[in-house]
Structure formats: structure tokens, C-alpha cells
Predict the 3D structure of the following.
Amino acid sequence: MLETRDLTIRFGGHVAVDRVSCAFTPGQLTAIVGPNGAGKTTYFNLISGQLPASAGSVHLDGEDITALAAPLRTRRGLGRAFQLTQLFAKLSVLENVRLAVQARRQRGIDLWRVWLDRKEWIDEALALLERVQLVSQRDALAAELPHGDQRKLEVALLIALDPKVYLFDEPTAGMSANDAPVVLDLIRALKAQAERTILLVEHKMDVVRELADRIVVLHQGQLVADGNPDEVMALPVVQDAYLGRAKEAA
């Protein structure tokens, strides 16, 4: 479904992502892990089109999308949730989700159906708000929500777009112990849909061990490990690079 081939980006003399080749298949949740500065979010930015690659390519469903801007990649089926929420701050919670539903349907303007369509969009948006436990705040402005609720709203927007590939960048960062399970339950439900491909950047290793079918480890912009979670986390290179274990003296 999704593949990167020798994907690279340079900022001056610094190589932030260095020739990363990796393929991701439907029905699989892959956790992208590594220490701070390893290139995880930058790798996501290259995949979703927020940054242009210096070299290499990105392929979605067999098509080279490297030259496409981020909005066009979204239309092809790439969905991205960010570390910092990306919402329509001055619109209500309900209107945020309704616009995502409307964008997915991409229906042309038809004055005979506009109000019926709007009702369908609102009904679908309300169902999504029910899933993220935000129905009671439907009329609140997105900017007025607490951080945890903004994260839940962004996940609702992402689900409303119904992408082929979900990119979650630390989806529970900054969330309370009460809010985080809501988002994690939604990710579990998405994982149960065998046709979906999910990539997850996450620092909480208990979450990674529970959700991931596969772990990819980045270190200094390079892919250093890829495979079964238990096997990958036991590798010396991962213990050294990710867990910060001091190397034993020879």
C-alpha cells in the first residue's frame, strides 16, 4: 500500500532522513520508534508531503506520489494526524468534522440536494463525535477545547476522511490518563479493519508493545532495525540507540 525508496532529506550539511527504504502493507500497524532527533516526524513529513524529498521516492498503492503536494496526497488516501493539532480553530467542533466528511464525499454543488446532503454530513459528523466522546462539546469552538479534546477532535477529522493509510504522530502526547484510552481504542478499531495501513510514531513503549505488529527503528536518520516487536526491542543496536543503554566495554 505504501512504500518509500531511498527516501532522503538534507538540511544543509545535515541528513535528517538517510536513504530509508520501507514498505507497509494493509492490515498491519507499524510503530516507528527511535530517540529524539532520530528523524521519525521528518520521515512522516516526507511521506505526507509537508517536506520535499532531497532524494528517493514515495509510492502509494503502486503510484509514485513524490511530486504531489500534501493536499493531493490526502486525496489519494494518505491521512495524517500531527504532534501539534491542525484544526479550524474558529469553527465549532461539529463544523470541523462536518467539513472533513464533506471533503471526503467531494460532491459537486447541487442546489436541489444541498440541505439533504448537509443533514447527512451532520449526522455522520455527530456519529464520529460520539466515538471520540465530544458530542456534548459539539457547539464549542475548536480553539476553546482543552488540549486532550483537541487531540480527540483531530483523530475524528482523520477518521472522517477515511484514508487508506493512517499516519499517527504521537497521538496521545500531552493527553490525560482519562483521554488517552479513547484515542487508543479508536486506533485499535482501525487496526481491526484489515484493509487499512497504520503507521504510528510513539514514545510510550507500553503502547507500542500492545498495538504494534511490527517495529521500525530509526537512528540518526537511518533505518537500523525492522521486524517483530519482541525481537526488535531485544536487539543490541536498539537497546543502545533507543533505550540509551551504555555499551559494555570490550
Remarks:
- DSSP finds nine helices and ten strands in the chain.
- Strands lie at 2-11, 14-24, 28-33, 55-60, 63-64, 78-81, 165-169, 197-201, 214-219, 222-227.
